[in-house]
Amino acid sequence: MIILRTSATAQTLTVIPREYVTTFSMDIRDDSTNVTTIYEITTATTVGNYLVFNNTFNPILVEGHFYDLRLYIDYNIWNTNFNLWEAENTKWNETNTFVSEIFSDRIFCTDQTIDQTKNEYYELNEGQYTYNNSYNNDYIVTS
Q1: What CATH code is assigned to 2-118?
Q2: How many other C-beta atoms can be found within 10 angstroms of the C-beta atom of residue 117?
Q3: What is the spatial distance between Cα 113 and Cα 66, in angstroms, rounded to a whole number?
Q4: Gap between the Cα atoms of 84 and 79, Å rounded
Q5: What tens digit of pLDDT does each residue of 98-131 get?
Q6: C-alpha to C-alpha distance for 7 and 91, rounded to whole angstroms
Q7: Less crowded by CB within 10 Å, the N or C end of the chain?
Q8: Domain locations along the chain
């Protein structure tokens, strides 16, 4: 699962894809509203075994929502794959529905600090309850 923030600035995603490419499409589907937003990524780089890219989410992701992430190559877009055109240029202008999925995962959006190495976990009710430790509860009085 990928953790992202509710931010209007670019966020970095680091994934291990099935295929390493620099240009692809990204779908983000909000599980609560079932609204899908499509982004075109053109500046992905390979760093070791990871595919790293930045994206600015518009509309901004919503706190506490889950999203489905899908990275794919859409061969219906002109010049996405020149080799496909060279192999079969007679059918290039026909509508093609071939999509090659290179990665899929879930996203959770939160602004809470989450670092499991420091025992900082997500709190569902953060800020909703206050704890009162002003009483002396060391003993129980019975009658």
Answers
A1: 2.60.40
A2: 5
A3: 17
A4: 9
A5: 788 999 999 999 888 777 787 776 776 666 766 6
A6: 43
A7: C
A8: 2-118
